[in-house]
Design a protein that fits this description.
Blueprint: E1 2-3, H1 8-14, H2 44-47, E2 51-64, E3 67-71, E4 75-81, E5 87-88, E6 90-91, E7 98-99, E8 103-104, H3 108-112, H4 121-133, E9 138-143, E10 148-149, H5 151-155, E11 167-176, E12 185-186, E13 193-197, E14 217-221, E15 231-241, E16 249-250, H6 263-278, E17 288-299, H7 300-305
Antiparallel strand pairs: 1-14, 2-3, 2-4, 2-17, 4-6, 4-7, 5-10, 8-9, 9-11, 10-11, 11-12, 11-13, 12-16, 14-15, 15-17
């Protein structure tokens, strides 16, 4: 293995397009490139000298307001890029670009809500009835815009004061529980949570203090096929951001409870209770994201050439 002192020239050369890739009929990537089967490698913006990307976050956490959500299931981000430097992440084909399984919220419904004793009686009764049988609450991260990537920044965190962002994501978080209904979200397409992850050291507003990521270890996975040279593998990288803001939750409580009150009132009461307990909206400097995982990056031409 080579540490991240691996030269930029080497990394770039390893990802350069094949000058004379063998022709291949439409099929499925094979061999070492099978993992990139959902890459949009025939998209013209990716096919012309671009690359396929597969990132798997294995561990970490999100701290949103006063609630910490551990990452205990793999989160997969995949697609294609035009450049190793600043480039949008083109959507995966045949699979989600971002696959984030629901994560349990510590404490469940009781952990994210503080029901007001002045709630209407039926709402109060319904809350405790749900707690008795289904206290669990899950949180699922959903993208609301294409991610922006810069893998040069990820491998080589800049030290000249330039933007250190390696991955920029605009997301919302869906909270699910029978009491919360099916439209309970933290953030929205119009007002998302914008996370700017980096492997360097952050400079957040207070009360957060700077934290550092880690570029991990970068090396080449060589292939046996005579026409390919391999793909870049980056392991155990940690990306961080603790300078993002989180908007208030909304749309919670929109579930048929047989209550003689308007849906808007129910939303205000339940969403308000969620926001009070979780500490939302939460200003920049009060939230944290730490993600550790592995990334594979292959020339789209190599992926195409491996089709069978």
């Amino acid at each position: 293995m080579l540490k991240t002192s691996l030269s930029l020239a080497f990394a770039t050369a390893a990802l350069a397009g094949v000058l004379a890739a063998p022709d291949a009929a439409a099929g499925t990537p094979s061999g070492p490139y099978a993992k990139f089967k959902y890459c949009p490698y025939t998209n013209p913006d990716v096919a012309d000298g671009g690359s396929c990307v597969l990132n798997t976050t294995r561990s970490g956490m999100f701290k949103i307001g006063s609630t910490t959500l551990p990452i205990d299931k793999p989160i997969v981000l995949q697609g294609g890029i035009k450049w190793l430097s600043d480039s949008p992440l083109y959507a995966a084909v045949g699979a989600p670009t971002l696959s984030a399984p629901p994560a349990k919220v510590p404490g469940g419904l009781l952990g994210i809500m503080n029901p007001n004793p002045n709630w209407p009686g039926p709402l109060w009764t319904a809350f405790w009835a749900i707690v008795a049988v289904a206290n669990d609450v899950t949180a699922t991260m959903e993208p609301v815009a294409p991610a922006q990537t810069n893998f040069i920044n990820a491998l080589y965190p800049p030290t000249d004061g330039s933007d250190p962002t390696a991955v920029k994501m605009a997301v919302r978080v869906k909270l699910q529980n029978p009491f919360l209904g099916d439209t309970c979200y933290i953030g929205s397409a119009q007002n998302p949570i914008v996370i700017k992850l980096q492997t360097g050291t952050t400079a957040p507003p207070p009360p957060n203090l700077p934290i550092s990521g880690d570029p991990g270890e970068t090396y080449t996975v060589w292939t046996d096929e005579p026409n390919y040279i391999g793909y870049i593998q980056n392991d155990d990288a940690t990306l961080v951001d603790n300078a993002f803001a989180v908007p208030a939750a909304q749309g919670c409580g929109n579930v048929a409870l047989g209550l003689p009150i308007l849906t808007q009132v129910l939303d205000a009461l339940v969403s308000g209770a969620v926001n009070l307990k979780v500490g939302l909206p939460s200003a920049s400097g009060k939230n944290t994201a730490i993600l550790t995982g592995d990334t594979s990056i292959a020339s789209s031409a190599y992926v195409l050439a491996s089709e069978e």
